Amino acid sequence: RAALQGNPAHRDAHFNLARALQANGQRDEAITHFVAGTRIQDDRTPLYLYYLADAYARQGAVTEAEPYAREARTRAASFGQESLVKAIDEDLRRLKAAGGRSDQR
Q1: Which pTM was predicted?
Q2: 29 three-class SS
């Protein structure tokens, strides 16, 4: 939080804070920070989108998670990030199987 006070656009600070918040069960606030991390478009954006999709999925919000997961997959593929593409594909299968039910993790 201190890093964000000094630089509100600090992408890594948003990402790290989001992960900590999610681990502490503060998923809504975590999502806000994951979203902030997706504002910059580069080769790290697919990972940020993937974590954002995961945060929604952990809330049971499949309809919100799926578009972010698909966008993360498209971008990861464009950067040749094959291991990330595989992980996203697995999660997309789980999201489809969840079909809008509550948290499946």
Answers
A1: 0.86
A2: helix
